[in-house]
Amino acid sequence: MRDLYQRLGVSPQANDEELQQAVARCPNSALRQDAKAVFEVPKRRESYNQALTTLSDIGQLRARLGLTHGAHWQGDVANDFSLPADQAVSRHDELVDRVSHAVILYNRLRGLRGIWLLIITFFVGTGIGVALGFILSKTLAA
Description:
- This protein is mainly α.
- Helices cover 70% and strands 0% of the residues.
- The chain crosses the membrane at residues 115-136.
């Protein structure tokens, strides 16, 4: 199925007069015939618009999944609903990156824990030694 709006160069919100003018300007007789068959009957245009919406949604889904047509399909009728691959990061990938970053930070902290424990022990021991020395000097002086 072709995207007739795209092929005719009009918006899907175009009114009947704009569509008739676009169909009349169309150089491709097969496309012109298809467009007349779809757009001249309001019920057919409504059905076509529903199918167009569904195919556009499928095209967007395929793009989000990174599924695009090969180079030999570019410019072909089959490519009307194929969008370029979406480079957006999925929510799952974003969460995996955040968790990975948290794990890296935690592992670094664990690696430093031994050093910090040694430093804290040194200062606490020094503090206790100074306090005991001060107390002993007071008791011996008295």
